[in-house]
Structure formats: C-alpha cells, structure tokens
C-alpha cells in the first residue's frame, strides 16, 4: 500500500503540502481540480500546474478524487455522450501526465450524506455524524443548508452550491431512474471509458454510496458485496474497480468489511480507511481511527488488505476536529495524521508477523 492524504488544493485547503509532507510515511496526495464542475473536460495546463505544485513540495499525485460524473450520465439523458466524451478527454489528459487512479461516484443528487458536521463527543472533539431520524425529518431541499451551515466556510466535497441550487429539478430528473436503470447507465458509461483506461492504464475506483442505503427515496447501487460483484462482472475489466471505503460500506452493519475486501481481490484500486461508532443501527458518528474507539476491527480490515496484496493508494479518511483546529469538517490535519500513523503501525506489524 501507498499511504496518502487527501488535499483539496492551495485555494481550498487549510492544510498545506508542507504539513502533509511531514506526516510519517506519506509520500503522495490524492487531489482534484476543485474548481471544475462535473461535465467539463479538464484543461491540460491546469493538470500540469497542479502536478508541478505537488511535486515542488516533494510529493506526488497518487490519484484523483474525484472526477465527478455529470447528472446526464447517471440519468441517461440523450445528451450524455457529450459529457462522456469530455470525461474521456479528461482521462486522456490525466493519463498523459502519468496519473493512474481516478475515484468517482455514481450517487444521484447527493454525494455522501451526514446530518451533523460537528457533533460533540465527551472528550470535546467534534465529528461528522448521521442520524436517520434527522433525515426523515428533513425535506431534501433543506439538506444543503444543513451541510453548508456547519462547514467552517469550506465548500464540502460533492456539495457544490451551484448543483445544490437545483435540488428540486434534480429530483424531478431522476424520477424515472430506479436501481436497474442506474446500473444500466453505469454500464454504458464504463463501457465507453474502458478503452482510454486500457490505453493509459488508468484504474477507475468507484466510491460506495454513503450511507449504503437509499436516502430520500433516491436509487443507490454501490452499497454491498452482491452489487459490487455485479458491477465488476458487467464490465469485466481490471481497470473497472473500486474505492474500498470502510466508513461508507460500514454504515450498513450487515456488510462484513474484511470479507468484502477479500472478495474484491485485484479490483480494489484505492482504500479509505476509518472507523465508525454506532449508537444505534441508524445513528453513527465518525470516531477516531483506533479500533477501540469505534465499532470496526481496524486490524482485520488492514489484514484483509494485506492478504489480498493491496498495493494501491490508501488514505486515512475523515478525522475528528481536535486540538482547536479549524478546517473543513473531516479534513483537518491533526486527526488524519494520527490516523495515518496508526494505519502505518498496523501495516508494519502485519507485514512483520507475516515474514
Ligand atoms: C467525502 C468523500 C466523498 C468522495 C466521493 C468520491 O468526504 O468520501 O465525497 O470523495 O464520493 O467521488
């Protein structure tokens, strides 16, 4: 595995590349052109400038999270090919710059969904949290306000204000899209992009739906082992792979995380590893990475990744806000650095025990 941290670019991130470089074992960042909108082809100069900036700080770009998918592709509207062509152009340009891993998601309307961005824990730290009861009490149009209000002035990834201004229209556009249609539209998209992925050896890593069930009645498909295996088979190319995100698949306690990892051998191209603490099956919070602070056995998760020979980029995922840091919720420096150190420690121990 290659330990990385997510970085949103110098215009958007409170964490600097110099700080990331000092986290032990972190040699690469996962980044994106945060100012682009889904559907646009990325400019060569912008990709090169991003790469040069990262490399000037002694780091490399280990992958992109995310190149977002335009809603026309997910809905399957007649003009989707135009947006897929742009996506292919972006992949081609990334490939030409030596970037080999692209994370994306296929979630309708909303990306990941949390109901609180700063729930206070007994030790005074604050964390992202989800409560189904809070969702059930909200209308979808209000969802964005509840996310934006607590974000310390940051645009949260996947919650671009431009898209969120059209939530009502988006819901209308998705009204005929059920799970089967979404699968078919994903297949269509993947079949069209696989040739460029083959040409440049780009691993596509779909991010799971978070939480791993339908929210506000929208279809959601990347939620469990059965569905991901179906997705792998429907476009059976090693470049069609997944981001294994423990915090997203883990929202459904029926998902056996180590077992899922083992069944995806060779197709996990990126890993997000974090823990969750459940207060009930539908109320959870993003605890510290440490096993004993949450519900998951982090050792077993890392061991499963080790056992399948995972050698792609991995990152600590959302961290708690601690030590007075003010940053994008989930993406401060301190707790993610602690997470990286902990995951590195688990990996070293597993590696040595296996020699
Ligand atoms: C949240 C992230 C997601 C993820 C996208 C991938 O913090 O895990 O926004 O980046 O779903 O496209």
Task: Provide a concise account of the structure shown.
This protein has 355 residues and is of the alpha/beta class. Helices cover 39% and strands 17% of the residues.
Produce the secondary structure layout.
Layout: E1 2-6, H1 17-21, E2 28-31, H2 44-56, E3 60-65, H3 71-75, H4 80-96, E4 101-105, E5 116-120, E6 126-131, H5 132-136, H6 140-149, H7 161-164, H8 167-173, H9 179-200, E7 203-207, H10 225-234, E8 240-245, H11 246-249, H12 257-263, E9 268-273, E10 277-280, E11 283-285, H13 298-307, E12 313-316, H14 334-353
Parallel strand pairs: 1-2, 1-12, 2-3, 3-4, 4-7, 7-8, 8-9, 9-12
Antiparallel strand pairs: 5-6, 6-11, 10-11
Helix pairs in contact: 4-9, 12-13, 13-14
The structure holds D-mannose.
What compounds are bound to the protein? D-mannose
- Poorly predicted ranges: none
Radius of gyration: 19 Å
Strand content: 15-25%
Mean pLDDT: 96
According to CATH, what is the topology? TIM Barrel
The CATH top-level class label: Alpha Beta
Record the strand order, biggest sheet: 1-2-3-4-7-8-9-12
What is the N-to-C succession of helices and strands?
A: EHEHEHHEEEHHHHHEHEHHEEEHEH
- Going by CATH, the homologous superfamily would be Divalent-metal-dependent TIM barrel enzymes
In CATH terms, what is the architecture? Answer: Alpha-Beta Barrel
First-to-last CA distance? 17 Å
Would you report the number of β strands? 12
Count of the separate structural domains: 1
What would the principal axes of the Cα set say about the shape? globular
Helix percent reads 25-40%
Number of helices: 14
**What does the main sheet amount to?**
8 strands, parallel, barrel
- Strand-pairing-aware structural class: alpha/beta
